[in-house]
Amino acid sequence: MSDTVIREGVGGMPCPEYENPAFNSPPPLNEAKVAIVTTAGLRHRDDASWEVQDSSFRVFESDDRELQLGHLSPNFDRSGFIADINVVYPIDRLNELAEQGVIGSVAPRHMSFMGAQDKRMSGIRIDSGPAMAKMLLEDEVDVVLLTPI
Question: What pLDDT score does 119 carry?
Answer without folding.
Answer: 59
